[in-house]
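User: quick one - fold this with copper (II) ion bound?
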Amino acid sequence: MGRILNSIHRFFSEMSRSSSPNEDYINKLFLWFLILAAIIMIIVIVAVLIGAIHYRSSRHQGEPEQITGIKWLEITWTIIPLLILLIFFYFTVRFMKDIDQPVDKNQQADIIITARQWWWEMQYSKYNFTTANELHIPVHQKLLMRVESADVIHDWWVPELGRKIDAIPGTSNYSWLEASDTGEYKGACSEYCGTQHAGMRILVISETKNEFDQWVQDQQKVPSPPVDSVAQRGMRLFSERTCAGCHSISGTVAVSHIGPDLTHLASRKTLISGVLTNTPKNLYLWLQNPQKLKEGSHMPNFILSNNELEALVKYLEELK
Ligand SMILES: [Cu+2]
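Assistant: Sure. Structure tokens for the protein plus copper (II) ion:
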């Protein structure tokens, strides 16, 4: 019994601790639905038990009395659920309005998210740089996010930061983003979008204003060309082996956006949309055979030699 009460207590304290204003609304609504559903369930169970015990066959002989209808009872049990539904309908619509505040036509989005098979491009339009898969945001600031898709329908969902929002080709959807605490929030694509749908994860990093500003400054920097000879070879290989045809690195000839922007690849915690942690070893394995680590991914296998792999890894690891 103590264990059960403990779990219930933990559940409710988890539910009432929310990481964003949007999650707070959703949790509250869910909790009220849950409490009411539990009360109804208890009433039904008690009624069934009373019926089963009171009218058990050893007490009564033959057919029980047949009732063909009690008008007042039927009206009551229609009106009560109707009222309950109306009350919840009202609160659902109200919370939806709180979460989905209208976007002013002239308002510029803080972040433009473009979903792609199978990763996320993140453009900080106000700060003029692009990154991928990991979104940094300043804590306690309400940001406007514009969500789009470059291929099929995807869906952005970071549960702790609120609602889902579909990424639909040819349309822009908007959603508000605000974290109540610093920390990391995990999410994933939640609309089936092909082979690697499960390998399309999201990491949102909420940090203090100072940390965020520092991060923005670092991201805006154009990386200086490598001085190390191995890294220099890596940089040459990057254009020779057509990597530049799909990726961008500021300050170089690589300006394509078919694959993630690699300008500050080494500053990210994860690789290939949260599937791998970002270590030199994993980067090496990825370049060695992308199809082995993320089958179906739109990055082909270049069958690179060990020498070429080492040079490329060395170069990319310098992109802090
Ligand atoms: Cu998906």
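One thing worth noting: The first strand starts at residue 111 and ends at 116.
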